[in-house]
Amino acid sequence: MKQFCEAVMTVTEEKTAKAMGSGDLPVLATPAMIALMENAAMRCAAEGLPQGITTVGVRMEVSHDRASGLGAEITARATLLEKAERSFTFRVEAFEGETRIGEGTHVRATVQADRFLAKLNRG
């Protein structure tokens, strides 16, 4: 398990608030920033998990503090704060260059992938 992971993306039309329906401006959508943060945390949690075990996001508390325009490169960082028996808690941050544009905490829970999916298919 890694203690620190990053994920990077470029703000494209598809990742704007206008395109995602979370706003009406051509700026980085909060849901896109959150997805990038979650991806960084998922990568950290995945390291060293047994075959067939994965993690799912169960809690996200973040602020989106600065706007980023088209073409901006965004880096999300996840730092492990706590590992419990079946969950991981991360500090998550998003940056445009050296400027932090968002921050918060994210919790991921471990699940057995096939059992998790089987429950979905029963309903």
Explain how this protein is built:
The active site is at 30, 38, 64. InterPro entries: FlK, FlK-like_dom, HotDog_dom_sf. Residues 11-113 form the Fluoroacetyl-CoA-specific thioesterase-like domain. By secondary structure, the chain is of the alpha+beta class. It contains 3 helices and 5 strands, in the order βααββββα. It has a 5-stranded antiparallel beta sheet. The chain is globular, with a radius of gyration of 15 Å.
Characteristics:
alpha+beta, globular, FlK, five-stranded antiparallel β-sheet, FlK-like_dom
Write a brief structural summary:
The chain is about 25% helix and about 45% strand. By secondary structure, it is α+β, with helices and mostly antiparallel strands.
* CATH class label: Alpha Beta
Task: Give the SSE string.
Answer: EHHEEEEH
* Intertermini distance: 33 Å
Query: What gyration radius follows from the Cα positions, in whole Å?
Result: 15 Å
pLDDT < 50 stretches: none
Taken together, the total number of domains comes to 1
* Name given to the CATH homologous superfamily: Hotdog Thioesterase
Number of helices: 3
Mean pLDDT across every amino acid position:
96
What gross morphology would you assign?
Answer: globular
Portion of residues in beta strands equals 35-45%
CATH topology: Thiol Ester Dehydrase, Chain A
Strand runs, count:
5
Organism: Anaerofilum hominis
Pfam families: FlK
Protein name: Thioesterase family protein
